[in-house]
Amino acid sequence: MTEQTGAWGRIAEDGTVFVRTVDGERPVGSWLAGPPEAGLAFYQRKYDELATEVELLERRMHSGAGDTRATASTAARLRGQLAEANVVGDLAALESRLAKLLMDAQGKLATEKAAQAEASTAAIEKKKALAEEAEKLAKSSDWKSTGDRLRALVEEWREIKGVARRTDTELWRRVSAARDEFTRRRGAHFAGLDEQRKAAAGVKEKLAKEAETLAESSDWAATATRYKSLMVEWKAAGSAGKGAEDDLWGRFKAAQEKFFARRSEVFAERDKEFAGNAKTKEAILAEAEALDPAVDLDAATKALREIQTRWEAAGKVPRELMTTLERRMETVEKKFRSAAESKWKQTDVQSSPMVIRLRESVAKLESKVAKARAAGREADAAAAEETLATQREWLSQAEQG
Fold first, then answer.
1. Virtual CA dihedral for 353, 356, 359, 364, nearest 10 degrees?
2. Closest Cα to residue 101, out of 61, 67, 51?
């Protein structure tokens, strides 16, 4: 075999493949399977694959797409393998790139660690603030709003991440103790509110009676809205006691269900009617879409007007079909408007009365400007010139149709 030499290595006569490094040559393999240039190319491709892997690491590092720690680990592994890599290429360049990559990764890791520490400190401060707020709320007698705030506070707590388990547990104990204290005080307060329960029972009796009256209503929208309001009032009235609460709620719910069942039956019938209207409009649309204004615009327009009358008389259609059907009719109407406009533009714009009048007006104004300037009346000339500019613009637009 003839020795083959390249920029970064060579193949000796016995087939041994060498790579050149800053420390001299070292063997990386052997090649006996074909021409020496093919062998050298094979080991150069292996170098290119290694360089590509380094390039991908660099891209991940600088784009922020990859995990910094994993990037650093892979770069260190590749760097450690360079001394024994069975490739032919500029290993010193790869060594330099990997060294820089490792340095950048270590710097980024330090930055990330600092950011994490800062975030952890901020998270601790937020949870401390929530714990302090909970301890203040534990003394409150504003039962509804305080209970709402404590629930929201717990949700905020769960959203805060990055606090060490031990610190988090200690702070949570403060929040939990504050919630427990508030709950005990609120429970003790409501335990003695017999009069409040009686009042709630009175309110709910009235609400149940109104609900029963509304069950026969056919004013669907207003009644449905009123039922929603009744439900809000029901919840705001408080508890009427276990036995009374169940009885009153049973009456209220039965009346509400009766009304909405009646409404559903009416709406189902209406939907059936709307579906029939939709079929009628589909047929009308087919007639409209078959009209061709290009053949006889006047006759087609007359036919379209008659179709539009029937279209409006056909009635409402299901909501999910309304937009599609309307857009199809709008497309037909747009086709007719375009045809009418085309026909109008085909008329002799230049001979229209408007164009003639504007030309005469422009000529008179031009004469007026010339006479005013000849007489030295510059103010009159300027005023006439301003009007003339407007008239010329109108004339240009009219002549363009």
1. -90
2. 61
Contacts of 88 (CB under 8 A, 6+ apart): 6, 8, 9, 17, 19, 28, 40, 43, 44, 46, 47
Q: pTM to 2 decimals?
A: 0.34
pLDDT of residue 50: 92
- Listed residue (66, 69, 92) closest to 7, CA to CA: 92
- Residue 10 pairs in a beta bridge with 5, 18
Tokens in use for 398? 């009219």
CA torsion, ordered 215, 218, 221, 226, to nearest 10 deg? -30
For 271-329, the pLDDT digits (tens) are 777 888 888 888 888 888 888 887 788 888 888 888 888 888 878 877 777 888 788 88
- Given the structure tokens 């714990």, which residue do they identify? 131
Contacts of 35 (CB under 8 A, 6+ apart): 4
CA 334 to chain CA centroid, Å, is 33
Q: How far is CA 120 from CA 125, 164, 216, 239, 387, in A?
A: 9, 8, 61, 44, 74
Closest CA to 293 of 349, 345, 344, 333: 333
What average pLDDT does range 113-126 have in this prediction? 81
Q: How confident is the model at residue 135 (pLDDT cuts 50, 70, 90)?
A: very high
Residue 20 pairs with which residues in a beta bridge?
A: 25
Side chain identity, residue 31: W
∠ CA 84-86-91 to the nearest 5 degrees?
Answer: 70
Q: Do 147 and 189 form a contact (C-beta atoms < 8 A)?
A: no
